[in-house]
Design a protein that fits this description.
The complex is a heterodimer. The relative contact order of chain A is 0.33. Chain A has strands at about 5, 10-15, 20-25, 30-35, 45-50, 55-60, 60-65, 70-75, 85-90, 100, 105-110. By secondary structure, chain A is mostly beta strands. In chain A, strands 2, 4, 5, 9, 10 and 11 form a 6-stranded mixed beta sheet that branches. Chain A has a 5-stranded antiparallel beta sheet with strand order 1-3-8-7-6, with no helix packed on it. Chain A is globular, with a radius of gyration of 13 Å. Chain B is mainly beta. Helix content of chain B is about 0%, strand content about 45%. Chain B has no helices and 11 strands. In chain B, the strands form 2 sheets. In chain B, strands 2, 4, 5, 6, 9, 10 and 11 form a 7-stranded mixed beta sheet that branches. In chain B, a hairpin with a 6-residue loop joins strand 4 and strand 5 (about 45-50). The termini of chain B are far apart. Classes of the chains: A mainly beta, B mainly beta. Chains A and B meet through strand 4, strand 5 and strand 9 of A and strand 10 of B.
Chain lengths: ~110, ~110
């Protein structure tokens, strides 16, 4: 079945440093979604990208969808301790099919 | 704010006990899901449903069962709990249309089997 991979698996940064996580697929994706899960919490939807080359921003977060629609990135500028958590990318297969989640990138931010 | 609720939030039970984890949503979503997740790790789909009277097994083999008698309710049952079932169980829902929908997650049930 379709899979999405994420790198890195873990990332430790100093507060104020930038952070990027990448999501990759061997097949063309119809969309990419990003979720954030705080420690002890549940995944929360952040954003969806559907167009080739699309870029969206949410404050310090920048999301990109690759031109070939096979990869995506989430970039956080000047990390804060509130950014700590696991970031999952996901795609939906359409036609009522299930979500396919990546394995997640666990971000820790040292104050 | 997502309206999907799971009870209990935390549960500690003895080996061999039967338990039911409750999940309800008030958004009228057709699709519902159960995921198993060790803290901060991958999400493993164990069951899903397209709607009333529809239940399917997910990617991860599970000894649990589910039912969908009402649109809003999707309980998960373990007939005989074992320590290997210790994990977090997350319920989610979405609209039926796959593209362009998002998954709404409940707050999860943290299960410990002793």
């Amino acid at each position: 079945g379709q899979q999405v991979m994420q790198i890195p698996q873990y990332q430790h940064v100093q507060e104020g440093e930038d952070f990027t996580t990448y999501c990759n697929s061997s097949t063309t994706l119809s969309n990419i979604q990003w979720y954030k899960q705080r420690p002890g919490g549940h995944p929360v939807f952040l954003i969806q990208l559907v167009k080739s080359g699309e870029v969206k921003k949410q404050k310090r977060l920048t999301f990109q969808f690759g031109e070939a629609k096979k990869n995506s990135s989430l970039h956080i500028t000047a990390t804060q301790t509130t950014d700590v958590g696991t970031y999952f990318c996901a795609t939906t297969l359409g036609n009522g099919q299930n979500f396919v989640f990546g394995p997640g990138t666990r971000l820790s931010v040292l104050p | 704010e997502a309206d999907i609720y799971q009870t209990p939030r935390y549960l500690v039970i003895g080996t061999g006990k039967k338990i039911t984890l409750e999940c309800s949503q008030t958004m009228g979503h057709d699709k519902m899901y159960w995921y198993q997740q060790d803290p901060g790790m991958e999400l493993h789909l164990i069951h899903y449903s397209y709607g009333v009277n529809s239940t399917e097994k997910g990617d991860l083999s599970s000894e649990s069962t589910v039912s969908r008698i009402r649109t809003e309710h999707f309980p998960l049952t373990l007939e005989s709990a074992r320590p290997s079932h210790t994990s977090q169980y997350l319920c989610a829902s979405s609209e039926f249309e796959g593209l362009g929908t998002e998954a709404f997650f409940g707050q999860g049930t943290r299960l410990t089997v002793v």
